Amino acid sequence: MHKEHLLPACQYIHGERKARLFTMVGNDERQINGSFSLYYVFAIDEIHFFVTIKIALSQVDPTFPSLAAYIPALDWYEREVNDLLGLRAIGHPNRVPLILHGDSLGIHPLCKDYVETGLLPQTSDMTDTVEYMGEDVTQIPVGPIHAGIIEPGHFRFGAVGDTILHLDAKLFYTHRGIEKTLEGKTVQEARFLIERICCVCNVSHSASFAQAVESAAGIEISQRAKFLRCLYLELERLYNHVGDVGNICSGYGFAVGSSQGARLKEQLLQLNERLTGHRYLRGTIVPGGVNCDLDEAELVLLMESINEIDVDFQEFVDILLGHEIAMDRMETTGKLSLQQVDDFEAVGIAARASGRDVDCRRDFPYAAYEQLDFAVVLQTEGDVLARIKVRIVEAFNSMLLIRQILSRLPKGASQTDIPLIEPYTSSLGWSESARGENTHWIMFDKNNTIYRYRIRSAAYSNWPVVPLAVEGNIIPDFPLINKSFELCYACCDR
Amino acid sequence: MNEELGKDMKARITKVLGGSLHIRHVDTGSCNGCDFEMGALSNPIYDISRFGVSFSASPRQADMLMVTGGVTRALQKALLRTYAAVPNPKIVLAVGACAIGGGVFGETYANAGGIDQFVPVYVYIPGCPPRPEALMQGILSAIDKYEEVLKRGN
């Protein structure tokens, strides 16, 4: 499509057909067809359909019309392609480099003619953060190194007294250049990097990767592999949700809750290790199937452990939701409206707690989810309590799913070979992690190597709404609100 | 195994540091795995605080730094400034494959790799991520290093 038609086309798909933005990918295809390309992928949930709009940009004029004012979620995508590929969005309201932290170097690492010369230089010094001025406004900078054992990010609050007027969240500190490193890697090599985008979403990332490879190769994996994938995905969701419910409790010093959550999570991690050899289930999902099959004894162990954890988690939840002070701290704190999550195309718990009905396990079923019964959990209040409630119910649903899988696990092989993929085939893979859908877009090169890889994680879609949720709240509630989203920095930064 | 390690740790901390060991964590670009395992040390199963270890909020109050992740472009300065803020002797532990040598990511336009290019490292704890027991063992080795440095007087 010509770039002049981009705006009306996206307005029609997104505005009239109510499609949601799934991902946007910039690609240097000058070696293939002489131009840069931008792919806007939209998902229409009701009819389970993707629509991709592709525009070509010439090397002489690598500009395109900015749509961030119409689709606010495009803000980051448009700034990212400027940083990494030098494709400029004309009319973007904020042109400050995102990934490169304010540095306009004129060097674009994702271009194919970029020559690796070590770290890119750093020229700016925090010029990309908001400055708060005025007599009554206090500026409070926090991070990138925080007080607890957590990932790095810089938060700058503009506060009046205790109340947060505005928050500027500066991320991409853990940007490691994974997408560039993936280029030229074979499918087999790539899997080790994919598993390390983020440790606590690694099963989901591996599943998205594997499904993208399988869809490009046009193969179907075995039924057993499909069910086992769901099993590992649900085990990942379960330890995350149980741990996160506990973690939210430490947001208001509710020690009983944080200890119970941490204890149950540790039990689940130890269970993971006994089943698969890795506490975070790394190495379980591979393109073509699963790398780790379970025998009868392991299945029995899993069933018994889940039954135990179910009882303990119920007791913990009863204590938590019956506690007046805990409830008081969570209710009405960190509210997000449906309009806000819709505008920024939020996914996962952040979206469902505000009434946005998205869950790609149901909307775009993958692995064995079509054959399993589960409900998508929705709340409408959009506060911390709503997010914790969604997590709690989803954790119980995960246990139900695990039981279903165990009772119906088909027999058979767990791996299928990957044939040679046609060069320059592109494909999409997606899966619902504990934080929302992780979408991977791959274009293949010759001999099953990777030409371009774009990882759009749930955290990437959800981080922009966090600052909206904290406005008007008090500063001591920020850790609580932040924990209620529990977004990974590593997933977002890549 | 945890209990034995813990008892050793408590005895060594009492002897070398006089009762407690304060550790500051720095994430220089990790995938969150090492961070989660460090967090697990405080859960009720390992409960490392009963052996005299606490994770301090500031490097100024820390006896040691535990660094996770290869050093990214954006976090070089943060690592150096945190290191500068730690009182002497500055004992640094490299936690996990990335902090040790860049891990699977290697060196890119945004990632410099192992932390020992920037700060002197006393103990390397391998793993992806290292299990909590490995972290405890690493801390125990770091206490030995701390003792050596104190004896040497620099």
From TrEMBL, chain A:
<dbReference type="InterPro" id="IPR001268">
    <property type="entry name" value="NADH_UbQ_OxRdtase_30kDa_su"/>
</dbReference>
<dbReference type="InterPro" id="IPR052197">
    <property type="entry name" value="ComplexI_49kDa-like"/>
</dbReference>
<keyword id="KW-0460">Magnesium</keyword>
<feature type="binding site">
    <location>
        <position position="491"/>
    </location>
    <ligand>
        <name>Fe cation</name>
    </ligand>
</feature>
<feature type="binding site">
    <location>
        <position position="488"/>
    </location>
    <ligand>
        <name>Ni(2+)</name>
    </ligand>
</feature>
<dbReference type="Pfam" id="PF00346">
    <property type="entry name" value="Complex1_49kDa"/>
</dbReference>
<feature type="binding site">
    <location>
        <position position="201"/>
    </location>
    <ligand>
        <name>Fe cation</name>
    </ligand>
</feature>
<protein>
    <submittedName>
        <fullName>Ni,Fe-hydrogenase III large subunit</fullName>
    </submittedName>
</protein>
<feature type="binding site">
    <location>
        <position position="179"/>
    </location>
    <ligand>
        <name>Mg(2+)</name>
    </ligand>
</feature>
<feature type="binding site">
    <location>
        <position position="198"/>
    </location>
    <ligand>
        <name>Ni(2+)</name>
    </ligand>
</feature>
<feature type="domain" description="NADH-quinone oxidoreductase subunit D">
    <location>
        <begin position="429"/>
        <end position="494"/>
    </location>
</feature>
<feature type="domain" description="NADH-quinone oxidoreductase subunit D">
    <location>
        <begin position="263"/>
        <end position="419"/>
    </location>
</feature>
<keyword id="KW-0533">Nickel</keyword>
<keyword id="KW-0520">NAD</keyword>
<keyword id="KW-0560">Oxidoreductase</keyword>
<dbReference type="Pfam" id="PF00374">
    <property type="entry name" value="NiFeSe_Hases"/>
</dbReference>
<dbReference type="GO" id="GO:0016651">
    <property type="term" value="F:oxidoreductase activity, acting on NAD(P)H"/>
</dbReference>
<keyword id="KW-0408">Iron</keyword>
<dbReference type="GO" id="GO:0016151">
    <property type="term" value="F:nickel cation binding"/>
</dbReference>
<dbReference type="InterPro" id="IPR037232">
    <property type="entry name" value="NADH_quin_OxRdtase_su_C/D-like"/>
</dbReference>
<dbReference type="InterPro" id="IPR001135">
    <property type="entry name" value="NADH_Q_OxRdtase_suD"/>
</dbReference>
<dbReference type="InterPro" id="IPR001501">
    <property type="entry name" value="Ni-dep_hyd_lsu"/>
</dbReference>
UniProtKB/TrEMBL annotation, chain B:
<keyword id="KW-0408">Iron</keyword>
<keyword id="KW-0411">Iron-sulfur</keyword>
<dbReference type="Pfam" id="PF01058">
    <property type="entry name" value="Oxidored_q6"/>
</dbReference>
<dbReference type="GO" id="GO:0046872">
    <property type="term" value="F:metal ion binding"/>
</dbReference>
<keyword id="KW-0004">4Fe-4S</keyword>
<protein>
    <submittedName>
        <fullName>Ni,Fe-hydrogenase III small subunit</fullName>
    </submittedName>
</protein>
<feature type="domain" description="NADH:ubiquinone oxidoreductase-like 20kDa subunit">
    <location>
        <begin position="31"/>
        <end position="141"/>
    </location>
</feature>
<dbReference type="GO" id="GO:0051539">
    <property type="term" value="F:4 iron, 4 sulfur cluster binding"/>
</dbReference>
<dbReference type="InterPro" id="IPR006137">
    <property type="entry name" value="NADH_UbQ_OxRdtase-like_20kDa"/>
</dbReference>
<keyword id="KW-0479">Metal-binding</keyword>
<dbReference type="InterPro" id="IPR052375">
    <property type="entry name" value="Complex_I_20kDa-like"/>
</dbReference>
<comment type="similarity">
    <text>Belongs to the complex I 20 kDa subunit family.</text>
</comment>
